[in-house]
Amino acid sequence: MQEENVLYTIKEVSELVGISESEIIRMVMLKKLPAIRVGKAIRIKEEDLEKFLDSFVGEEEVSANHKAPVLYTAEQVAKILQLSVDNVWNLLKTGKLKGFKVREGRSSWRIPSDSLEEFIKTRTKTSV
User: Fold this and answer.
1) Cα(125)–Cα(25) distance, integer angstroms
2) Is the residue at 66 inside a domain?
3) In the sheet where 71-73 sits, what is the strand order?
4) Which of 25, 43, 61 is the last residue before a domain boundary?
5) What secondary structure does DSSP assign to 58-126, as a single string?
6) CB 62 within 8 A of CB 98
7) I need a labelling partner for 6 at 20 to 30 A (CA). Which of 47, 52, 69, 125 fits?
8) Number of folded domains in the chain?
9) Which residue segment(s) compose the domain that 81 sits in?
10) Is 96 left (phi over 0), alpha (psi -120 to 50) or beta?
11) pTM above 0.70, yes or no
């Protein structure tokens, strides 16, 4: 059985990643984010989006003049927080730590740096 390919619109990618639609289009035009044309529309394959995200996870900038959100994997967050990856997945699933899935599977979570910072702030306030 063949797996179904997921195609995202520019707007969907923008919402998933937290980067403006114009910046997503710029990344496509610069060929940093592969895309396909469906008629006049631009679509981005799920696996291309994941490769794109993996290429700058942990980097501070996408370009010299545009700050992009830093995205961490669940495994990276586990190391930062000194927790097991299972605990990080539980925090994500319960909404205590904000993140999003780029595809189905356990290691497909991405956590924006501001969400991680907010989680740490709330934890340090309550555990005085």
Assistant:
1) 40
2) no
3) 71-73, 109-112, 100-101
4) 61
5) T-SEEETTEE---EEEHHHHHHHHT--HHHHHHHHHHTSS--EESSSSGGGEEEEHHHHHHHHHHHHHH
6) no
7) 69
8) 2
9) 71-126
10) alpha
11) no
Residue 18 falls in which region: left (phi positive, over 0), alpha (psi -120 to 50) or beta: left
Q: Are residues 78 and 108 in the same domain?
A: yes
From 36, 61, 86, the end of a domain falls on: 61
Residue recorded with tokens 């702030």: 121
Structure tokens at 54: 């993996």
The residues that bridge with 101 in the sheet, in sequence order, are: 109
* Contact predicate 68/56, CB 8 Å: yes
Tens digits of residue pLDDT in 47-94: 888 888 777 654 444 444 445 557 888 888 888 888 898 999 899 889
Q: Is 3 helix (H, G, I), strand (E, B) or coil?
A: coil
